[in-house]
Amino acid sequence: MARLNRQSETQENETESDTEERAGESETQSCPECESERLVTSGDGDELVCDDCGLVLEDQMIDRGPEWRAFNHGERQSKSRVGAPTTQTMHDKGLTTQIDWKNKDAYGRSLSSEKRSQMSRLRKWQERIRTKDAGERNLQFALSETDRMASALGVPRSVREVASVIYRRALNEDLIRGRSIEGVATSCLYAACRQEGIPRSLEEVSEVSRVEQKEIGRTYRYISQELGLRMEPVDPKEYVPRFCSELGVSEEVEMKAKEIIDVTAEQGLLSGKSPTGFAAAAIYAASLLCNEKQTQREVASVAQVTEVTIRNRYQEQIEAMGIQ
Length: 324
Prior knowledge:
The N terminus is likely disordered. Helix content is 56%, strand content 3%. It is mostly helical. The termini are far apart.
């Protein structure tokens, strides 16, 4: 028995040494003609060629690529064997089985009644076992609410990913205890919009949410403080393009409004003011200067501020610019 063990150990050592020798030879392989180590593989991966003298060292190499061909991006995507990438916007990060509702097989043929009832039972149990406890069910509900509100606000997918990451961090830090799931989800979405530079005011976020604006603001301040989120002050110029687009004014008005904001912000008028009201007043002033007058009611409706706010900010801005 001891002799057999020694023989097996000797064979394993010889195998390991042979493998190391072959690896060393492949790493230090050089051209036998000019002794150059600049060896390149052809575009189709079939040949190993010396880059200096052009000698073909190996041909008919193993092709480790797919056996199918694709001539455009659409064909390449349809023939890919991998699934969708993982995402933070789903509670299981997308690593789950999806059973289609079409009741058709891989060839597009309709299933029999027996198979349809079997697929229906499988779908039912798949939905049940996707969430194993109450924590995952709450996370699933929160992320679905975040996705719904993000779709209503028209924000890009990157903002949804960031909002989902912030919510998961708040969940891990146990910051949701004693607060509504919808309120925390809305606050995380608002924080993600600010981090990604997507101008969405607290009023706009509260409109698509089922939570009051006061609770959203309070929860947002608490979460940003506990998680250490670094939030820069919102620049009023970020709201100008969207407001001007909704008002249908020219690019000249947009540029003039940004100029008014720059000049008045340098004089300290922006401190303590609402960025949306400041941007709305600048657009109103720019429309008057460019002979494309917009009423205060129209601008206030787009910016979701009061006409009094626009009048006050407008007076301050024209006085700072020395316009009579």
